[in-house]
């Protein structure tokens, strides 16, 4: 019996969604979900820098069971780090334009975020979904 090739899915996960996954102790779920569903997650230096910044918040550090290095290495091992191009988009939150730069540079199909402004952006160049919608895709 011939094996059928499963199509790889290309996604970008926002820092706020990574943080939610970590707070809810779902990093093992994410790893299994990515492997099982042949998902590629893309990051760049700006996303990793933002993740480090947020993980260093005292409030976040006090909630998470592991240190910052654990979570950064987790994301680095789970994802493909790229040098993204700048597309000069006018997203509802200019501080999040880098997410679209990553997605467009990587030819990603989805952006996963908890940012309401991005979820409601009608002119988004990429489909944007919440973390709960992402969890139910497959």
Explain how this protein is built.
It is a single chain. The protein is of the alpha/beta class and 138 residues long. It has a single domain (9-135), classed as Rossmann fold, CATH 3.40.50.1010. It has eight helices and five strands, in the order βααβαααβαβαβα. The chain has helices at residues 15-23, 27-36, 45-55, 58-63, 68-78, 97-106, 116-119, 131-135, and strands at residues 9-13, 39-43, 79-81, 110-112, 127-129. Strands 3-2-1-4-5 form a five-stranded parallel β-sheet, sandwiched between helices. β4, α7 and β5 form a beta-alpha-beta unit. It is globular, with a radius of gyration of 15 Å. It starts with 8 loop residues before the first strand and ends with a helix. The mean pLDDT is 94.
Largest sheet descriptor = 5 strands, parallel
Straight-line distance between termini: 24 Å
Mean pLDDT, all residues: 94
CATH architecture: 3-Layer(aba) Sandwich
What's the number of helices?
8
Helix content: 40-55%
- The CATH first-level class comes to Alpha Beta
Which fold does the CATH topology refer to?
Answer: Rossmann fold
Secondary-structure element sequence?
EHHEHHHEHEHEH
């Amino acid at each position: 019996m011939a094996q059928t090739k499963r199509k790889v899915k290309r996604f970008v996960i926002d820092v706020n969604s990574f943080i939610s996954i970590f707070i809810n102790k779902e990093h093992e779920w994410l790893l299994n979900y990515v492997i099982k569903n042949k998902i590629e997650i893309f990051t760049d230096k700006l996303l990793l820098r933002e993740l480090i910044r947020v993980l260093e918040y005292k409030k976040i550090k006090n909630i998470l069971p592991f240190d910052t290095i654990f979570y950064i290495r987790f994301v680095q091992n789970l994802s493909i780090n790229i040098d993204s191009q700048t597309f000069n988009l006018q997203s509802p939150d200019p501080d999040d334009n880098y997410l679209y730069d990553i997605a467009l540079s990587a030819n990603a199909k989805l952006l996963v975020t908890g940012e309401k402004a991005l979820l409601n952006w009608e002119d988004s160049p990429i489909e944007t979904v919440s973390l709960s919608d992402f969890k139910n895709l497959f």
